[in-house]
Specification:
Elements: E1 2-7, E2 10-12, E3 18-26, E4 37-42, E5 49-54, E6 61-63, E7 71-76, E8 81-86, E9 95-101, E10 113-117
Parallel strand pairs: 2-10
Antiparallel strand pairs: 1-3, 3-8, 4-5, 4-9, 5-6, 7-8, 9-10
Length: 119
């Protein structure tokens, strides 16, 4: 069983930046074995959506059109961490952000980290 713990959220003004981190723990030696990793978000009243994903060796990265050019996903297989650098934040980026495998493991959702973009 693998669990994910997200951190780094907060309140930021429009145009600002945040860096989210995700630590994996449990019965794994390396997140490399999990394959693709992703960052998801869920805004109030909306379904959870995948915003960014990265392949096991970081050779491929994909982004939702709404964040492309502003967000950058990265992973460190040795440290079992996945990060999301978010720049030029907009109010519509406000959501709870989660990390998980891509596709997601339903039993591995963490509590997420809240991001609020507001002036």
């Amino acid at each position: 069983q693998v669990q994910f713990v997200e951190s780094g959220g907060g309140l930021v003004q429009p145009g600002g930046s945040l860096r989210l981190s995700c630590a994996a723990s449990g019965s794994i030696s390396s997140i490399y074995t999990l394959g693709n990793m992703g960052w998801y978000r869920q805004a109030p009243g909306n379904q959870r959506e995948l915003v960014a994903s990265v392949s096991s060796l970081s050779s491929t990265k994909n982004y939702a059109s709404s964040v492309k050019g502003r967000f950058t996903i990265s992973r460190d297989n040795a440290k079992n961490t996945v990060s999301l650098q978010m720049n030029s934040l907009k109010p519509e980026d406000t959501a709870v952000y989660y990390c998980n495998t891509d596709p997601a493991r339903t039993t591995s959702w963490g509590h997420g980290t809240h991001v609020t973009v507001s002036s």
